[in-house]
Amino acid sequence: MAAKLWFLAAAASLALSSPALAAEGATAPDLSAANARLTAILDKNYPALEALYKDLHLHPELGMQEVRTAGILAQNLRKAGFMVTEKVGGTGVVAVLKNGVGPTILVRADMDALPMEEKTGLPWSSKARATYEGKDVPVMHACGHDTHVAYLIGVAQALSAMRDSWSGTIVLIGQPAEEPLKGARAMLDDGLLTRFPKPDFGFAAHVTNLPAGTVAIKAGASSSASDSYSVTFHGRGGHGSMPAATIDPIPIAARFITDVQTVISREKDPAAFGVLTIGAINAGSAPNIIPDSAEVKVNLRSQSPQVRDLLRGGTARSAKAAAMMGNAPEPTITSLGGTGVLMNDEAMASAATAALTPVFGKGLLYAPASGQPMSGSEDFSEFVDAGVPSLFFGIGGYDPAVLADLKAKGEPVPTNHSPFFAPKAEPAIRNAVTAIVLSIVAGVRPTPK
Ligand SMILES: [Zn+2]
Ligand SMILES: [Zn+2]
């Protein structure tokens, strides 16, 4: 997910609630036999999945450039017995397995890496580089999507081997470009729901810096909406000694940057979540030249449609007002991508908690719908909003010994997107496969419409 600090925030709120709370009223099927069988399948398949993860980690690819990754994924899903279609929404992969009468179930993994330099010191650290917005940049799997591609293959292998334990149709997707929050939309626009069997419900999982063995389930809203914009103020350039002959876009941009924060501090209900960040300012070149234009990049986070509308409208209003105040033409406001709040289906959250608590024990952390969602965002919400009720798991990936060591040294635990983010592959991959496959075998279903 893009900026996924939710896991940290989630850890605090999740720890407050007990799995029994969710299990109330839901009857848990006995999954011990299925779990034993799945464990044996994973024991056999895991070494190859870990090798695949290391290879992907060494060869990370940015959003919409995941050609090698998608090729490896497609090949492995075919080998597991799925019908595979490539290049869906750019570099996306769709794999279908039909297994009798039953619901159509989506399982999604994202594939992209981030434009940043790796500092983990892992023997399989990335040295890869790529072109990002016209610049040559280092690339790193700093959000764990390499483990996600591996778990999707693990899910395919397990569901294929356990066909007598479930029935219906599985639609697996390797999604491109989650980080820029564009890939889910691209796959939907390319006919994901019409060219392939339409999923009745879905699952996804994300590795986090929570302790290995943790499987986090948040009912209801589980992430924030994110919207990014480029705001370009148009002026009239000229000599720094003759400002009256120009329209200077720099003070206009400066005024906007301070004014727009009052949308948060004066217009938004103080009790409602909302964040407005100016992440970039680009204007000018030399002290004695008044530039023609100034560009400001804005990111908005919200957790309700009302606040989302307020922040989007307020940003546009403040930008236009600042331009008007500076006697400049209307600014150009361009969307740089965004996505809504990820809603986890409450019935699926309860049923999965009931089914998986005997498997993960105290590691299963449940947070009710009333709990605080994460401040980060995840474009898996696009599938939910397109009519596929879903459950998104947070999977702990940090070795408890490493966490204890960091705590003793007073050092922070690296979060997703840190250059030091290095989750342990085995618990991340195995527990994601287990949570998803056993939820499917257990017959976890969404709230009836
Ligand atoms: Zn991610
Ligand atoms: Zn991310």
Any descriptors?
449 residues; alpha+beta; 4-stranded antiparallel sheet; 14 helices; 25% strand; elongated; binds zinc ion
Describe how the helices and strands are arranged:
Elements (H helix, E strand, L loop, with lengths): L5 H9 L4 H5 L8 H27 L8 H13 L3 E6 L3 E8 L4 E7 L18 E4 L2 E4 L6 H17 L6 E8 L7 H7 L2 H4 L5 E11 L3 E4 L1 E2 L3 E10 L3 E2 L9 H11 L1 H7 L6 E10 L5 E2 L2 E10 L2 H21 L6 E8 L3 E2 L1 H15 L3 E4 L13 H5 L4 E9 L1 H9 L16 H17 L8
Parallel strand pairs: 3-6, 3-7, 7-18, 8-17
Antiparallel strand pairs: 1-2, 2-6, 4-5, 8-18, 9-16, 10-14, 10-15, 11-13, 12-14
Helix pairs in contact: 3-5, 3-14, 4-5, 5-14, 8-10
Bound molecules: zinc ion (2 copies).
Describe the structure.
It is a single chain. The chain is α+β, with helices and mostly antiparallel strands and 449 residues long. It is 37% helix and 25% strand. The chain has 2 domains: 6-222 and 341-441, Zn peptidases (Aminopeptidase), CATH 3.40.630; 225-338, Alpha-Beta Plaits. The protein has helices at residues 6-14, 19-23, 32-58, 67-79, 145-161, 183-189, 192-195, 249-259, 261-267, 305-325, 346-360, 381-385, 400-408, 425-441, and strands spanning 83-88, 92-99, 104-110, 129-132, 135-138, 168-175, 201-211, 215-218, 220-221, 225-234, 238-239, 274-283, 289-290, 293-302, 332-339, 343-344, 364-367, 390-398. The strands form 5 sheets. It has an 8-stranded mixed sheet with strand order 1-2-6-3-7-18-8-17, sandwiched between helices. A 4-stranded antiparallel sheet has the order 12-14-10-15, covered by helices on one side. The chain has a two-stranded antiparallel ribbon with strand order 4-5. The protein starts with 5 loop residues before the first helix and ends in an 8-residue tail after the last helix. Mean pLDDT is 93; it is low at 3-25. The structure holds zinc ion (2 copies). Residues 1, 4, 143, 145, 178, 206 line the site of one zinc ion (ZN).
